[in-house]
Design brief:
This protein is α+β, with helices and mostly antiparallel strands. Helix content is 34%, strand content 30%.
Amino acid sequence: MSVRQAAALLCALLTAGCAAGVAGTPEAAPTEAVDAGLVGGYFSDGLAAARGGAGPQRAFLQRTQHPDFRTGACDLGDLVLAVEPALSTLRPDPDWAAGRGGVPRGRVYVVAVSVTAKRDGTTVGVQIGSQHVVVLDGAAYGFAPCPR
């Protein structure tokens, strides 16, 4: 066998494996993984808005309020909330109902959060709790908090 024939045979053997298919069906990223990215982005955008102050935060909360719960949403006034999630705690919560409004459309998730409330740059409270976020039509939505 000549060098040229050996090279051709080697090339054929190496490329033959590339043409063979792999058994199975392709899958998209799991829905929960995609949703986790959207929820993470929701909180990142919310923190960026909070750093901008009450006006940007108000705009963020209005824009991201779940479409079925836009009427009667709370206004925080001059209170600014920095909401930091522990995304490792994110889990589905399909049976959660948003008060009298019922179960919201979309995929409902709950996540543990740390909330720092500030007024005029001064911390007035810190709380650890949970927050619900809904993924609907490829976007993450929340529910404007109501201070008590």
